Amino acid sequence: MHGLRRRSRSAFTLIELLVVIAIIAILIGLLLPAVQKVREAAARIQCGNNIKQLALACHNYHDVNSTLPPAVLMVANANRVTATGSNFGPNWMVLVLPYMEQDNLYKSVSASILNYPATGDAAWRVIRGTQIKNFRCPSDIGHGVPWSLAGGGWARGNYGCNAGGIHGPNVGWQSTENGQSPTNDWAWGGLPVTLRGGGVMCINWGAALNRIRDGTSNTALLGEVRVGSYLGDVDPRGTWALGFPGASVICANYTWDCTNPNDTNDYADDGEGAINDSQNGMGAWPGCPFQQAQSRSRHTGGVQVANCDGSVRFVRNSISQANWWYLWASDDGQTSTE
Question: Is pLDDT above 60 for 78?
Fold first, then answer.
């Protein structure tokens, strides 16, 4: 047995193991913010691509029809205030489907869409539950919870058109119908009452690009909206086929209690079923009729905006109310400097 030797086995002590675990935990803690920043940067790039494609689709619609698509088609007896039970028609996102590689979806209801202005045909709504990836911002949540009113099953989305408008008693959403241009009714943000508030995609009307007074490079076409389903399935904000403020329309978003992107004002958005969560940038007045809605997102510090020339920019929350007005109103005669 003379060649046998005793071997000692080395191993971690409990203290050493705990130290190693603590070091790993610290490293993970340091890495997580970096990983989250990378993910958000990627999501923001994807969101920018989405809104760019939608802007190009609007331009292609314009090439065929000589105007931008209307925010929504509405027959005379369609209720402009409430969506529940109202015979509103297809919105701008439905109308640009053929230019977003969704031609088959559009063709499945094209007869109803074409008939709607004359007959109020509502058969087009069968496509309302279709999930379309390019209509959703990757940074937002709640896409899997459909809007439950007006028949229910309405799929979510994150982009709204610029309907302009001035918030006043029962007029914000309707103040630009058929291309009307309202005049400022109060010195919002110290702005003069002589300012106009025209939109580019309104009820039953879309602008011709060469007639946008402030110029296509100075006027917003599209902006982000947030999905409101985390507050409840009755919150309509962020609903792609629904042509109402906050759902797929941004309007009067620089007047009254809407001031700048992602504002944290109480009761800022007015919409049927919308739930107030101002501290998280989703202020709403549930009992107020559809009158206005702000551009909102879950991106850090701002929102994506596509101008009427097709360019896309990231607008910071810190933009002044005046410059926010100048960017969205199509005929105020001013140019945003931020």
Answer: yes
